[in-house]
Amino acid sequence: MKALLFFFAVIATPAFSLAEMPQHTEVCVAATDKDIAALFDRWNESLKTGDPHKVVANYAAKSVLLATVSSKPRFTVDEKVDYFHHFLENQPEGRIDARTIELDCNLAIDEGLYSFTFKKTGVTAKARYTFTYKWDGKQWLITSHHSSRAPAEEAAPEEPIHSVARHSEVCVAITEKEVEFLLERWRESIQSGNPHKVIAHYAPRSVLLPLSSTKPRLTLDDKEDYFRQFLKSQPLVHLRSHTIELDCNTAINEGLYTYTFQKTGAIVNARYSIVYRWDGLQWLITSDHSSIYPQ
User: Which tens digits make up the pLDDT trace of 169-188?
Assistant: First the structure.
């Protein structure tokens, strides 16, 4: 896995074609939906121990945690231990309420809705999650974990979408600058006010956990319905910081951005995790999780 890059920058449009990229072949480890679902169970069991080090053992050395109740992105082992040290004080136990699992070459995404019951206080809290797992040659580890409070709107669990795992494939290379360009194109489509231009960035089989809706949007029609309402407030997007991870036919861009809604004057700081996938012709979003910046 290539190194993570974290920086503050103004995004510039690169002068190159995304289709003209070198290729290499990667051997892909097979995994099933059941295998990936068991990784959450492993993580949840480590929560029950009350030991933050056992929880953090589920994360790759180079990984990003955007936690439910912390505004600070956690990159290092020590930063994650610090977060879970406080989180575990209330004795949380997690439960999956609805999920979608996507399998790819040595990479898997588990995302949806989960609940935590805190035994110390008796409180139950609902949230949304995106776990991205990577095979490191010996085991599956979390490379990206985005957890956010569920907005006020409730939604019934959706049927999961599953993709087919491949044992080997040709990997199309992409650079960090090209990933920046993909997000810049998405930002411009948001500011166009046209929902059709926005959903053109999403793969037909993709998951959107949006900023202002609890309901996971799985189909393009679902996404268009969401963005039609969302764009009525005339949002402008300011990209503040990001982390980029590159992999076989996959790229992850996550970080912080700010929405300014011109119609109301409201300003909302938010976090995002976006996964791109090469579909044979172009890079499209397969997972998009956006959440309001915790206080």
Answer: 688 889 999 999 999 999 99
Distance between first and last Cα of the chain: 32
Q: Which two tokens stand for residue 191?
A: 């500011």
Contact 95, 115 (CB under 8 A): yes
Write the pLDDT tens digit of every residue in 106-125: 999 999 999 999 999 999 99
CA 130 – CA 249 distance, rounded (Å): 19
Which tokens sit at 259? Answer: 């929405």
List CB contacts of 73: < 8 A, sequence separation 6 or more.
Answer: 64, 65, 66, 243, 255, 256, 271
| Polymer length of the chain | 295
The rounded radius of gyration (Å) of the Cα atoms in the chain is: 18
Q: Which amino acid is at 257?
A: Y
pLDDT the model gives residue 264: 94
Q: 3-class secondary structure for 136-168?
A: CCCCEEEEEEEEEECCCCCCCCCCCCCCCCCCE
Residue identified by tokens 């119609």 is 263
Q: What is the pLDDT of residues 89-110, one digit of tens each?
A: 999 999 999 999 999 889 999 9
Which of 130, 272, 277, 274 lies closest to 203, judged by CA?
277
Could you tell me which residues come within 8 angstroms of residue 156 by beta carbon, excluding any fewer than 6 positions away?
A: none
> Which sign, positive or negative, has the C-alpha torsion 159, 250, 222, 148?
positive
Where is 82: in which H helix or E strand?
A: helix 77-87
Residue type, position 32, single letter: T
Token reading at 116: 């935590």
Q: What is the dihedral of CA 188, 193, 196, 199, to 10 degrees?
A: 50
